[in-house]
Amino acid sequence: MDAVARTRPKPIRLRGRSYVAFVFYPIVPIIEWLEEIDVTLRQSPGFFAGKPVVLDLSAVDLSQNAIAQLVSNLEQRELRVLGIEGVDASRLSASMPPLLIGGRHCAIGQEQPKKPEAKKAASLLLDSQVRSGQSIVFPDGDITIVGSVSSGAEIVAGGSIHIYGTLRGRAMAGINGNLSARIYCQKIEAELLAIDGYYRTAEEIDAAAYHGPTQVWLEGDVVQITPLNS
Questions:
Q1: How far from chain centre, in Å, is Cα 62?
Q2: What family is it from (predicted)?
Q3: Is the bond leading into 227 cis (omega within 30 degrees of zero)?
Q4: Angle between the 30-43 and 64-76 helix axes, to the nearest 10 degrees?
Q5: What are the pLDDT digits (tens) for 107-160?
Q6: Are 138 and 162 in contact (CB under 8 A)?
Q7: What is the 3-state secondary structure of 29-70?
């Protein structure tokens, strides 16, 4: 046999496959319906991104031009129309999404949009004296007190402590490992001073630091106390 055997081309593989799509049901007036779509997109930004959308036009009577405009409006909102149903094929042009028939309903669980977390305040301001027995704790930042801190009171901060008055109680700054935290006060008669766990008691505080504005800071593992004007 001299005939050259021809290689048969491989057959094209065609398989059916189903996908879940969001079905939009436009109603008139279309402008108001699009406004509702905009509200949904603002509440759930990105929820429809990359997901197929089908238009069911069974509740409206739109011309071919109106359908084309509606598809364009949705595409401007980054909603890609996979197909259209509920309309006569003569209303669709070749450039429009194809006519779909035989779609079945299914449930699609919509995730609730996450509420943005409220930003925590970086500082706490108290415009009154802190009395004996009171404990003020603010681990997220600085504490500022416009007034004095009585003996037996306690101030605990994740950041620095600013006292526009006399400090007679206990002050602990930088409790979350903030080595640069400081304690400032107009006059110091403290029972205890601490920064990041390093502390000094009243007996260890230099008496010369008791008069006038003072700052407390950490140098290595030693709590230092110096006048602000030094």
A1: 41
A2: Belongs to the MinC family.
A3: no
A4: 20
A5: 554 555 555 555 566 899 999 999 998 999 999 899 999 999 999 999 999 999
A6: no
A7: CHHHHHHHHHHHHHHCCCCCCCCCEEEECCCCCCCHHHHHHH
CATH 3.30.70.100 fits 122-227, yes or no: no
Q: Which of 213, 215, 219, 214 is nearest to 196 (CA)?
A: 219
Sequence-separated (6 or more) residues with CB below 8 Å from residue 120: 140, 141
User: If you search the block for the tokens 């006060």, which residue do you land on?
Assistant: 185
Which residues lie closer than 8 Å to 39 by C-beta, 6 or more apart? none
Closest CA to 172 of 151, 150, 196, 205: 196
CA distance 204 to 200: 6
List, for residues 56-97, the tens digit of each pLDDT value.
Answer: 999 999 999 999 999 999 999 888 898 999 999 899 999 999
Structure tokens at 5: 């055997």
Whether 216 and 223 have beta carbons less than 8 Å apart is answered as yes
- Tokens in use for 44? 């759930």
Strands 192-195, 198-201: pairing is antiparallel
- Computed from CA positions of residues 192, 197, 199, 201, in that sequence, does the dihedral angle turn out positive or negative? positive
